[in-house]
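Hi support team,

I've been running sequence recovery on a batch of backbones for a student project. Most finish fine, but this one hangs at about 90% for roughly twenty minutes before it completes. I'm not sure whether the input is malformed or the queue is just slow. I've pasted the structure tokens below so you can try to reproduce it. Let me know if you need the job ID as well.

Thanks,
M.K.
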């Protein structure tokens, strides 16, 4: 049978019987609303100027942007579809550049195979 040497104490608790845990900083709470109807109430330091408090946050429930206007929550500008690696490459390269790179790579492979065959033939 296992017994704890500090029964009834929780992690982070101060000395037994001590109620004072320091001075709590002043905070302000703001309400943010997302398009899915979630409402969040993050707290900010009262020392932060009002213009530095963000107008939008990401909703922790669904990831959509959340704003302070309940009747008009921010919308996602545009949903980007998933792009493959090939799609990103095609954005960066023209067809002519792609053919040139492919030709260079094939030439290197062919040269390497020829060198291997020559080395194998000499042994």
């Amino acid at each position: 049978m296992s017994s704890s040497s500090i029964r009834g104490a929780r992690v982070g608790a101060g000395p037994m019987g001590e109620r004072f845990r320091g001075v709590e900083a002043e905070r302000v709470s703001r309400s943010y609303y997302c398009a899915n109807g979630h409402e969040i109430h993050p707290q900010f330091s009262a020392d932060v100027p009002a213009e530095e408090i963000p107008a939008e946050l990401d909703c922790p429930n669904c990831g959509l942007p959340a704003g302070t206007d309940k009747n008009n929550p921010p919308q996602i500008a545009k949903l980007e579809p998933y792009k493959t690696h090939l799609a990103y490459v095609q954005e960066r390269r023209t067809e002519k550049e792609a053919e040139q790179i492919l030709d260079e790579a094939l030439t290197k492979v062919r040269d390497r195979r020829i060198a291997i065959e020559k080395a194998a033939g000499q042994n």
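--
Follow-up from support: It reproduced on our side and the slowdown came from queue contention, not your input. The longest strand covers residues 27-29. No action needed from you.
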